[in-house]
Design brief:
alpha/beta; 9 strands; 283 residues; four-stranded mixed sheet
Length: 283
Amino acid sequence: MGKSVYEMVTERIIEQLEQGVIPWEKPWTGIKSGAYNRVSKKSYSLLNQMLLKFDGEYATYKQWQELGGHVCKGEKSEIVVFWKIQPIEEVKEDGTKKVKQIPLLRYFNVFHISQVEGVEPLSKDALNDIEPIEKADNVLHNYWTKESITVEHTASNKAYYSPTLDLIHLPLLEQFKNANDYYSTAFHESVHSTMKKSRCNRAEDRKGRLVAFGSNEYSKEELVAEIGSVSLMNILGIETNKSFRNSNAYIQNWLSVLKNDVKFIVSASSKAEKAVDYILGEA
């Protein structure tokens, strides 16, 4: 029996982590910097950006053929995944029937333009002049204000989100080596704040208990927050190598979580994407 999509996704992530590469460190959004489909011109989802090895244009074997190109001999495909809603009919105890919509994970095989002959790359638009730090401030303050989240900045060595107080605590801006590190931390804690039931509802485990510090669920929530933070940094164009908190402890922790739950990386990226959309007001 072949590998499940979940197993293929997880193996790809684990392979990169074991090589010391954090796969969500690469750009995730926008044709200029991320991976996108050559035909639709749309950027791939957060999860697919993590799975794909390169930035730029991807397409299926058939799509490249229809564009007048052909995949070079011996080139190996990569995968992009998507959810397909499958109606399943269930018969209740009283004999009545009910149709449930079950999301099933499916995938396409795709090839990067560097693996293709006979097709020229699309021209890239000039980059826009942006003021990233101001944009970051606007995103944070708009979100904090809209949600009435209490935010405190004090001279300390702690950054955290308190679900019981709905409070984000951050060190002073001046304590960080650069502004990017501050925003990375602020976004990380802001993603945590979306766990609240009235927002993205991740505060409880499957048994309805609050996620406990040090538990497997807590480790998973840390991964959601980090993916979300890196995504926001990238969307705003202010990410730097130093903005990633990629310590060995983090990597080992994530590895142990992933190896014990092959489906989690799929749901983690989905949860992070929902959190980012919520913070940006796009949910």
